Amino acid sequence: MAAPACDFSSGGAVAAAAPPHRSPRHITLDGRTLEGGGQLVRIALALAALTGHSVTINHVRGNRQGKTGLKASHAAAVKLLGEISGSKVTGGQVGSRSVTFEPPVFEGEATDILVPLASVTPKPEYNIHLQTPGSVFLIFQAIYPYLLWVGSRPDIKTIRVNITGGTNGTNSPSFDYAVQVMLPNFKKLGFPAAEVILHKRGWSTGKVDMGSVSFILNALSSSGTLYFPPIDILSFDRGKITKVDITILAPDDYLSGTETSGENQTIRQYCEGQVHRTLRKALRKLDPALFDQAQLENTDNRGQIPITLAQSEATSHSARFYILLVADTEQGFKIGHDALGTAQAPQRPKQPGRNKHKQVKKGAKQEQTALEHIDEFIQGCIEGLVNEIVGLGIDVSNGQTSDVKAKKRSPLDQHMRDQIVVFEALGKLSGERATNGAETTEDERYWTLHTKTAQWVCREMLEDRQ
């Protein structure tokens, strides 16, 4: 299904418009638009709670293969937002293919852009308990904008949200990515510091295992009128890479095929060394201009940027194999790329018997395949980070005439770029828009389908507030 064109990139200074009309309206969204998954639902619900607009989403997650409709994480977010805002929710149960969220009509000024803080009294602490290890960080994405806003009441210091669910799962941000990439980048962009406390990891791979985290959220800061901070992503330069951190979560099972190094290694031990070696080799092939010159000239670094093992943690199942690579930039941004897969731990050698030689040969082949698979997994993750660093490798502004706008890449990795779209849109509601130089626009080739979907939802939900 084709979606209306929309563009939330910054294109220079824009004069503040006249105050928008405040009357709430009812908006209907087709859940099959663009990416057509859960992100559309999460952003729409957050903006409905913030603006007071009612929203109906039909064909929820209609582009997903297999089961469509609300997942447990979506239903939990709907329930909490409805509880805090006093909204009426219809179709908020797991599996629902149509959900309606109707905030109450509140007293306020005709020029109010978001719901008045006096209209809601949040609690200092909330608890969410999923029955399956659905992603706690997808729930966080849905509730974070609203809690930032309502938590800014003068009588609220912080809001704590405790969520039981999954911290490391497929197709969702991990605890490690959230702590090492997402939250530091939010802070860099002007948002209040937030804390995530890990009580226990929860995995959606291997044997089902529930985890638990707590989010400690601080209020938006203000000097005078309270708004979300305006974000001009193009006013930030990515800067050069200063170092790369490695996080490895892997089993401590013995890994055959590593004896040639003179010692037996576990899967995790092997990965610690192999990730470092393969990453170093890959970075050597890149243009030195991508890296901080001071780090390259540091004699302790031997002409290379530092690569640090930031965290190594044992897991209890071969399907719980996770790598996160985070490149720091000189401007303070974090560029991340991660991968979750299986280590395919080798089986124990079979007992010698009638087919002794055949059994040993078969076992050896299985174990070597596991080693090869791990190497391929590591290589794929490293290639992902390199692609984030290098990009498309095309300078689109080179040779352009003065009447053609230059294109600029954002300083964020592609997944992080998805996360800030809603905050870019909310930041524009204040009427204050910073300038990055009137001839610069963002290079849309780096926008994922998730980014484009988020932009479309923001346009539909905030059209009367721009």
TrEMBL record:
SUPFAM superfamilies: EPT/RTPC-like. GO terms for cellular component: nucleus. Residues 351-363 have a biased composition (Basic residues). Residues 34-463 form the RNA 3'-terminal phosphate cyclase domain. It comes from the Eukaryota. This is RNA 3'-terminal phosphate cyclase domain-containing protein. Residues 9-20 have a biased composition (Low complexity). Residues 1-23, 342-366 are annotated as: Disordered. It comes from Penicillium steckii. Coiled coil: none annotated. It holds the Pfam family RTC. GO terms for biological process: RNA processing. GO terms for molecular function: RNA-3'-phosphate cyclase activity. Gene3D superfamilies: RNA 3'-terminal phosphate cyclase domain (3.65.10.20).
